[in-house]
Design goal:
single chain, 185 residues, mainly alpha, Rna Polymerase Sigma Factor, Chain: A, 2 domains, 0% strand, elongated
């Protein structure tokens, strides 16, 4: 990175930490491409959307923690420290979601569907994956979503009637959580 850009970022960060909100656009203009490149290099295999997510999170954290910024320190290094933490956090979150059940909805778009319908189905699929990702291993096994759970319980295990009741209660909890998060449907 050239020294001029580094100094521009530092000056904008100092002004922002002093309460000058007009410095934020200058900070974004100077720091955004640097953070984007850092996020893509720091997370092998990350596409542009992932890198943009990280960069946005970094700017949120900068705004939240701007009072902690020490003007005697290098602003770029401080921002990279936050970016490194955000990359690790996003990576761990994605790993937990993949490990949480190990199943993914696959949706093949119907050629007769409009772009809006395809997009809506995709968003609903992602929301459903997030909801299922929050379930415990026992709940996923109860619904038959966790292949690693072996599909059963240790012997002697609950009766079929108890399993049906547990499953119905779990489905009711999922329905309530879905409505709370995504409205009626």
């Amino acid at each position: 990175m050239d020294p001029t850009r580094r100094q521009l970022i530092h000056d904008a960060m100092v002004r922002l930490s002093d309460g000058d909100r007009s410095a934020f656009p200058a900070l974004v203009a100077a720091l955004w491409p640097v953070l984007l490149a850092f996020a893509q290099r720091g997370w092998q295999g990350a596409g542009r959307p992932d890198a943009e997510d990280v960069a946005q999170q970094v700017f949120l954290r900068i705004c939240e923690r701007i009072a902690e910024f020490d003007p005697r320190r290098d602003a770029v290094s401080w921002a990279f420290g936050i970016a490194s933490y955000e990359i690790l956090t996003l990576r761990r979150r994605r790993q937990r979601r993949r490990e949480a059940g190990g199943f993914v909805w696959h949706s093949h778009p119907d050629p007769s569907e409009s772009q809006e319908e395809v997009l809506m189905k995709r968003e609903l699929s992602v929301a459903a994956q997030e909801l299922v990702g929050e379930l415990s291993a026992e709940d996923r096994a109860l619904l038959g979503l966790d292949a690693r759970a072996g599909g059963g319980f240790a012997t002697p295990g609950p009766s079929p009637a108890a399993l049906r009741k547990r499953r119905q209660r779990l489905i009711d909890r999922l329905r309530i959580a879905w409505r709370r998060l995504h409205g009626e449907s």
